[in-house]
Amino acid sequence: MAYARALLKLSGEALMGDQGYGIDPAIVQSIAEDVARVVAGGTQLAIVVGGGNIFRGLKGSAAGMDRATADYVGMLATVMNAITLQDGLERAGVETRVQTAIAMQEMAEPYIRRKAIRHLEKGRVVVFGAGCGNPFFTTDTTAALRAAEISADVVFKATKVDGVYDKDPHKNPDAKLFDHLSYIDAINLRLEVMDSTALSLCMDNKLPILVLNMWDHDALKKGLLGEQVGTLVTNQKQ
Q1: Residue 119 Cα distances to 103, 154, 221, angstroms
Q2: Which of 12, 94, 173, 178 makes an SS bond possible with 51, Cβ 3.0 to 4.6 Å?
Q3: CA-CA distance, 82 to 136, in Å (whole number)?
Q4: pLDDT tens sequence across 40-52
């Protein structure tokens, strides 16, 4: 494997499939089986999952909620997704631990960096819930932060398309797919790879980001093998 330890960033929307809201158990199981295949190959894998399929803090704030309160509600939504993902992974035969940035000891471990690393070393998948425990930070930023903390070799950003395009490929048939981008280009071109805070954190820590299509069941394995797939974001220009 090209990467011994990786962090996978899943959006909450990825778990709802075509339902428009909530969690689709079939989608969760499909993702769990993809993860099981790469973990069986010896890769240490951590996951950060969003909560947009249940509640999004920015949307709540736009509707009049206090921004901090809305973000805390969004953090609780990520924990629901994390526990659901844990169930799917364990049914796929993958030993899993959920760690949350907000204490919920009856259902998950508190986030402890050294303990998370120890779980990974034992071959367990660690799912991080409740974001980073602070409002005003996205789960993209949490993914970059946790990846740096656990000394991950790469961040995989799972999307519904084959990588990063110069414009929306669903609306523009002539959209160009980038094989490689620099952090600076991704920020300056506003390509929405991740939010600017997450990109800056990855840039400062020289942490590569690989944007790939989670619905391509071979994409995650190809990425771990170092094969050409999706869009790789590093400190090097094209």
Answers
A1: 18, 18, 21
A2: 12
A3: 20
A4: 999 999 999 999 9
The span from the CA of 237 to the CA of 75, in Å, is: 35
Tokens 């999004």, located at residue: 56
**Cα–Cα distances in Å, from 153 out to 74, 127, 196, 197, 218?**
28, 17, 20, 19, 19
Fold of the CATH domain 5-234: Carbamate kinase (3.40.1160)
Spans of the chain below 70 pLDDT: 237-238
CA distance 73 to 71: 5
Please report, for the chain, the start and end positions of each structural domain, with discontinuous segments joined by +. Answer: 5-234
DSSP symbols for 65-109? --HHHHHHHHHHHHHHHHHHHHHHHHHTT--EEEEESS--TTTSE
What span, in angstroms and rounded, lies between the C-alpha atoms of 59 and 232?
30
DSSP code at position 175: P
Helix, strand and coil percent figures for the chain, each rounded to 5: 40, 20, 40
